[in-house]
Specification:
This protein is α+β, with helices and mostly antiparallel strands. Helix content is 14%, strand content 33%.
């Protein structure tokens, strides 16, 4: 008699190691699993709950902080570890992110507020700081040409910070191991009694030059080898208002954007030393940053509590309005991936906004680009936030606030710090896919979007909603009782820009 038997290879029934799960065989026929969708929905609710249960965004502070409010922050574009911060008292400090400790404190680097800090585009560790006393200084994170690492004490195994004291910001001979390597000033005819204070500085992404924004209503371009500006944009569109922010475009080598006190956002072409276009908003913009992956897009933080993304090809209308803050947006910072940005506000909170879904673009809305924050970070002791930024690996966020502290946060609040095993990574991806698939259903949406905010922010938000409803009702009544054709509805994006100037 002939007998036929089923045979399976041993690799499909045995484990490769004692730590692996035993292989199981499943029937994938949908008719055999009539309750599959119900089970999947239950798993989605559980995944949303787990995400909120494990949410712990605060990592820690950089030990020591500052003595006064932190006014500026710079993250290196070529190295993960170095971070430089500036304070209102004129102190500049260099930090090592790996150990979250101070490496050097440059006391007296400036005599007034450090209004801007930026790293150069080289690997030499050079950075520039500008102050409201009208001086720019070049420094190095490497003391005397050596790589900067925190000294380690053999007894306690803790790094010790190097400290360099400067006698006076006006004394160029008083140097620390980190500099200043060079000092830059505006010509004496322009720089009297601190009338031309610097408010912002940015370095070119590929060339050896940097730009500054000053109180003389001008944008100045500098060569590190020269002590005076090589080009100045004066009398910008006939305005004498202070230029508060200046930023180089990451892709267009000769394009600069700036914000000014007259509520304007302008673009410049450095090749022809000419102004291209300017848009006037309803209120002043405090900060501006270009998208590093889609360089035709930029985001501005405004005094009207909102952030706006613009397409530089059409400045007459923002592409998206990002709401949620109840105080002026003081700082913005793009993620290296260009898919989201972080904002720091006067309302003492940090919010993270997603601009597009995977595979989309920032100029065309997708899932997560509805203008609401995907996460909100706050603590009881954190005060008004003046500077924020992503680390180069997209995993952490740094913030500097009025309470003299520099804090480190996780970019994903429930993300595990450290290496994930293959099983953990697969399980995490599965739970994220389930939440995204069922995010439109009420129970999953309620759990996934739930955030606890301070009481005063909740009250301010409720009051803002009442005010918005009053404005909408007033506009409806005006149109209803006006002569036909004389009044019409205007969408919210159309009300943001007052006018554009060529």
């Amino acid at each position: 008699m002939k007998v036929k038997a089923l045979a399976r290879p041993q690799s499909t029934t045995s484990r490769s190691s004692l730590h692996d799960l035993r292989p199981t065989h499943k029937n994938l026929n949908p008719q055999s699993h009539p309750q599959a969708r119900a089970r999947e929905y239950t798993r989605a609710v559980t995944a949303a709950k787990l995400d909120r249960m494990f949410a712990s965004p605060f990592v820690g502070e950089l030990k020591g902080g500052h003595v006064d409010a932190v006014s500026s922050l710079a993250i290196c574009r070529t190295n993960l570890c170095p971070v430089v911060t500036g304070a209102v008292d004129g102190t500049v400090r260099i930090w090592d992110l790996q150990n979250r400790r101070m490496v050097a404190s440059l006391d007296g680097a400036h005599s007034r507020n450090v209004s801007g800090i930026v790293f150069g585009n080289g690997i030499d560790g050079q950075f520039y700081s500008c102050g409201e006393e009208g001086i720019i200084k070049a420094w190095s994170i490497y003391p005397k040409g050596q790589y900067i690492t925190a000294d380690v004490d053999d007894e306690d195994k803790k790094p010790r910070a190097r400290k360099g004291n400067l006698k006076s910001s006006q004394d160029d001979d008083a140097e620390s191991p980190h500099g200043p390597l060079n000092v830059y000033r505006l010509p004496s005819s322009r720089n009297s009694s601190f009338a031309n204070a610097f408010h912002s500085i940015d370095h070119h992404w590929s060339d050896s030059q940097f730009a500054t924004a000053s109180s003389d209503a001008a944008v100045h371009l500098w060569d590190p080898e020269r002590s005076t500006p090589i080009t100045s944009f004066n009398n910008l569109w006939g305005s004498d208002d202070t230029v508060t922010t200046v930023r180089y475009n990451p892709a267009e080598r000769d394009l600069i954007a700036h914000c000014s006190s007259d509520r304007g956002i302008g673009l410049h072409d450095t090749r022809t030393a000419s102004a291209l276009q300017k848009t006037i908003m309803g209120m002043k913009s405090n900060c501006l940053e270009w998208n590093p992956m889609e360089p035709y897009m930029f985001v501005v933080g405004n005094e009207d509590y909102n952030a706006y993304t613009f397409d530089m090809r059409k400045l007459s209308r923002p592409t998206t309005i990002f709401k949620g803050h109840v105080g002026a947006v003081m700082s913005v910072g793009w993620s290296p991936t260009g898919t989201e940005f972080v904002t720091g506000s006067y309302d003492k909170t940090i919010r993270i906004f997603s601009t597009r879904k995977e595979g989309g673009t920032a100029s065309h809305g997708g899932y997560g680009s509805n203008g609401t924050a995907r996460d909100i970070y706050h603590t009881k002791r954190m005060q008004r936030i003046f500077c924020v930024g992503y680390t180069l690996d997209h995993k952490y966020i740094l913030s500097g606030s009025d309470d003299t502290n520099i804090r480190m946060w996780k970019a994903r609040s429930s993300e595990k710090i450290g290496q994930l095993s293959a099983r953990e990574e697969s399980s995490l991806q599965y739970r994220q896919a389930l939440v995204q698939k069922y995010a439109h259903l009420p129970e999953v949406k309620r759990i996934h979007k739930a955030r606890r905010v301070p009481k005063f922010i909740k009250k301010e938000t409720e009051q803002a909603m009442v005010q918005k409803e009053k404005r909408r009702r007033k506009e409806t009544n005006v149109i209803k009782h006006s002569k036909p054709g004389t009044a019409k509805f205007t969408d919210e994006k159309g009300k943001v820009v007052v006018k554009t100037v060529d």
